[in-house]
């Protein structure tokens, strides 16, 4: 799965549970998406909407493939375009004309974009496809000038939906899209009127697991959120990868500032099987294609509402 919209994920995860730093969004700012062809998808969506007080008219069902991977044309015709139309027809955002930079800061043109928006977040529920398949026959202007390794048009569904508010003039189906909000600390800028939807996914191997994530989050909010943070850096000297260590170490430092006890492993290898873990509230680590070490134990004690993130390009 390939993400084209650059976001600092490990640090942002740490900030997500820092109630002192970021206020919880209102349900009125959220749109929930489910797949009409997967009955359990609507059940997960309705449960989330009820718990998080999302207005009923902001729960949107679309007829999508039941497969995890879809074609680019199917993404455009069954998901992206219908969703944009629903947002406009339900008056959740208003389209209008605005002046946007296209190829650079001085190339300003009039484009059609959301100029007002009641929503900022999209929650994609269990049953909605995950990936957009690469189409080697898809050609676009400028493709030949791009490095060969970036001539790939496959992507994650979530990442492409994050770019939904962008005008067509700035979007390509290959390569990378610049995230104008990258490193921004002004939360008001994270809006469709500034070219981005904040997309998250409520998912899991089964609908029961996906639904339980809602209940676990509510349990943490109701009963308290406490435990230990475990972070696993590589201590790499490779300049291509050192930034990953910086992200994870930064997340660990935030956990410590917020009062969470923790442990950071600075060995190149991931945590060994002998490492005891209990009351895990936050985990972030590096490359390991399969579960290993303490995660092979019959039971790993993540507290309700815990976050875990493994930095690895090819899996979750």
How would you describe what is shown here?
The chain is of the alpha/beta class and 316 residues long. It has two domains: 194 residues, no CATH class; 86 residues. The protein has a four-stranded parallel beta sheet with strand order 2-1-6-9, with helices on both faces. Strands 11-10-12-13 form a four-stranded parallel beta sheet. Helix 6 links the parallel strand 10 and strand 11. Helix 1 runs parallel beside helix 6 and helix 2 runs parallel beside helix 5. The longest helix has 18 residues. It is globular and about 60 Å long. It starts with 8 loop residues before the first helix and ends in a 6-residue tail after the last strand. The N terminus is likely disordered.
Q: Quickly count the domains.
A: 2
Structural Rg? 20 Å
Query: Strand order, biggest sheet?
Result: 2-1-6-9
List unreliable stretches of 5+ residues.
1-22
From the helix content, strand content and strand pairing, which structural class follows?
alpha/beta
Main sheet: strands, sense, barrel: 4 strands, parallel
Give the % helix: 10-25%
Number of strands: 13
Q: What is the N-to-C order of secondary-structure elements (H for helix, E for strand)?
A: HEHEEHEEEEEHEHEHEEE
Query: Distance between termini?
Result: 10 Å
**Average pLDDT figure:** 88
Helical stretch count?
A: 6
Strand-residue proportion: 15-25%
In one word, what is the shape? globular
